[in-house]
Amino acid sequence: MFCIDKKNIGAVIRNARKKAKLKQYQVAEMAGFSEKHLSRIENGKYLPKLEHFLILTSILNLSLKDFGFIEPDNTNEEKTKLINKIMSLDSMTLNIYKTSLESAEKIVKIIKSKQET
Predict the structure, then answer these.
(1) CA-wise closest residue to 50 among 9, 21, 18
(2) Could you tell me if residue 1 is inside a domain?
(3) Other C-beta atoms within 10 Å of 40: how many?
(4) DSSP letter string over 11-66?
(5) What is the pLDDT, as a whole number, of residue 68?
(6) Which residues in the chain land under pLDDT 70?
(7) Residue 57, domain CATH
């Protein structure tokens, strides 16, 4: 079972913000939400919504590897590039990608079923 650790996510975001020499209010302003909300995320009290997570990872130049979601030995370079690309998308473009992937999955399923017969 996959467990998301709010405290780890918050710590990674806080450390990346500090490494970038940015204040909470600066990142919150760039992200479009309150400093209080960012503080709660960084302190592990809130799990950011996907949209906020994607915005923060884009602002702070973070990848899933930084959060420990992807082990470097378990993924190839192409998957990593694709995941990092998805992580940097705005919400409108992310929805387009999602729709495209759903369509591609349907096509692959049809092709596989035809190959099996």
Answers:
(1) 9
(2) no
(3) 16
(4) HHHHHHHHHTT--HHHHHHHHTS-HHHHHHHHTTSSPPPHHHHHHHHHHTT--GGG
(5) 78
(6) 1-3, 70-75
(7) 1.10.260.40
